[in-house]
Amino acid sequence: MRKWHRWEDWAVVIAGLVMVLTPVWSERIGSSVPMLLTSGALLLVVGIIDLAGPNLYGIEIGQIMASVLAIILPWLGNFAGANVPALTAWIAGGVALVSTVLAMRPSIKASRAQQAHVR
User: Fold this and answer.
1) Is residue 109 part of a domain?
2) 71 close to 91: Cβ distance less than 8 angstroms
3) 71 occurs within a structural domain
4) Is-contact 26 10, C-beta < 8 A?
């Protein structure tokens, strides 16, 4: 896999960026602002790391964990409901989770092929 070319990782980066920017235009409910900023920054960072070095299993597992965190964030931060921060966390987390799962299969194939070539 080539660096900086996987659309799945770009989707994770964009989801993180949307979460980080959501407090700018949405209402503040519970502890939505710090939680959206933290979780969005986490998605942004793991997405950029995975773009820079594709086929890193640890980072992809980290993306899955960050995505699940984003999905459960509204309940943890006491802002669950039909509001912009909660919907943003659920949608961005879902997009990041699906994108990461889709990226894992080609990553596993490429890694196995590389290991077979080295032997």
Assistant:
1) yes
2) no
3) yes
4) no
Q: What global pTM score does this model have?
A: 0.85
2 belongs to a structural domain? no
Give residue for tokens 């921060």: 85
E strands, the chain, where? none
Query: Is 1 among the domain residues?
Result: no
What's residue 71's pLDDT? 96
Torsion of CA 99, 103, 104, 110, to 10 degrees: 180
The pLDDT value recorded for residue 37 is 95
Residue 99 class from Cβ within 10 Å (0-12 exposed, 13-18 middle, 19+ buried)? buried
Cα 32 to Cα 114: distance, rounded to the nearest angstrom: 43
User: Cα dihedral angle (32, 14, 44, 109), rounded to 10 degrees?
Assistant: 130
Per residue in 30-65, pLDDT tens? 889 999 999 999 999 999 998 887 667 778 888 999
The separation between CA 111 and the C-alpha centre of its own chain, rounded to angstroms, equals 21
* CA dist., res. 22 & res. 87, Å (int): 10
